[in-house]
Amino acid sequence: MEKRWTILQTDGQKVAALQQSLKIHSAICKILIQRNIETFEQAKNFYRPQLTDLHDPWLMKDMDKAVNRIITAIEKQEKILVFGDYDVDGTTAVASMYQFLYKVHSNLDFYIPHRYREGYGVSKAGIDFAKENDYSLIISLDCGIKSVELIAYAKNLGIDFIVCDHHLPDAELPEAVAILNPKQKDCNYPYKELCGCGVGFKLITALAEKLNLPNEAAFQYLDLVATAIAADIVPITGENRILAYYGLKKANENPNNGVKALSHLSGLTKKLHINNLVFMIAPRVNAAGRMDDARKAVLMFIAESYEQALQYAEMLHSDNTDRKEADSSITYEALALIKGDEFLINKKSTVVFQPHWHKGVVGIVASRLIEHYYRPTVVLTQSGEYAAGSARSVPGFNLYEAIHACKEHLLGYGGHFAAAGMTIELDKIDAFRDKFEEVVSTTIPAELLMPEIVIDSEIKFRDITWPFYNIISQMEPFGPENLRPHFLVKNVFETGFSKILKELHLRFVLRQENVTITGIGFGMADKLPLLQLKKPVDIVFKIDENEWNGQKSLQLRMIDLRLNEDSINSN
User: Fold this and answer.
1) CB 380 within 8 A of CB 388
2) Which domains does the chain have, with CATH numbers?
3) What is the average pLDDT score of the chain?
């Protein structure tokens, strides 16, 4: 699939000024400027994050109300129910809050709604469970901001709600005792991008202060907060960067038993990085809710012994194996459907349906299909008498608006810019497919149907040194709005030593001027003939560390390559 390369532009004067004060390579200064780090002081805060720079939790609207209501519940020995969503953000938030409160209040339980029986967010079944078991206070985490009717229902039953959420509020807010959400219009909290577990963590820090507990009483949950930040794809900027930085430190030095058990089952032997949380820990936690019941994810995180945590982790690991099998077989079937239909191949959107597909993985399958056919994608399966499914977008295209434009064919839908879910009558699928294609094809700019590679800076092979790499590495943890830098080097030549590994991957040895460097292009075996033309090529890559026989070296992780434009034009 051809990709478009976009090289980020930067104000040269700002780069020069920052280089003057930091005395580091101009390419790194360029990247820092692109990430709004323009002064020595901002760079110091970025490279040396401090827990003392976390914002005062009392700046968040309703924090005093939330803390006072919980203190009252503790004093009166009321029963408190900690309620959270079934994904990583929800389960880590519930585990953190439950463990913290349990130290000061034993009249406590937690509740995770079942993905298929109850659906997303606050559920009537959860409220009824609270009523039947005499709970008078529910703390909802990573959900609740849109649950106006259900929270009113709870209030009529004499149950109070404290909502901790980070999703965008509607104009009408629920009648909760307190709503903690920095995205509320009248909330003065300085940082707006916390995840649900992050909002819950701010409530824990305020409670710890009110109860005269040491900082460590809250900070011991930072590895769970970092796991949620990584999994929920929130920006790794500002406060999230500090929380992720210290959360990773905790995960490596003194991890939660659940994190430790999942790391072991993932085969991780080296230091945990943010991408390990994203690709090893998070999928196993999410698999519990996708394939079965997410309650066991919380039980794993709150386990008091490693052995107990490992038992639950093995269940999650097994769920994840089932998830991978379902995801793989459904992706294979869906690709076969598209390839077997010439009409489908040439569309600007994808809508596929099979009644037997597993509902828990249709969102993952939609993302997989975009890797092959780069366009807005909907994957549907049968759920009872209806079809239900998930949609994923390509960057830059507002998926929610496109689905909203098809609402006449839908029973229900919800989501945001990049992802959405929907329910539809079985006999309306074809009409929806046609309407969705009409909306997408008339509104999507042509360039959004070609994957974009964003390049941070152009450098030379001679710039790739250990000091350069070490400064790049200190930009971790990487994530949205602070991605691992992508570099461009132009005019490089193949040396004759490049080869294909396992019929899939490209092991290349390239030269620029008098510097030779090796690297790997995963899944890029088809690029070898291009290198063998012996013409100059331009390459986009990340810099990696390679260890072989106890020897460490720097290598390139290829992202893309193409013939050098000047050499093409000269021919």
Assistant:
1) yes
2) 4-48+453-570 (2.40.50.460), 57-318 (3.90.1640.30), 340-449 (3.10.310.30)
3) 94
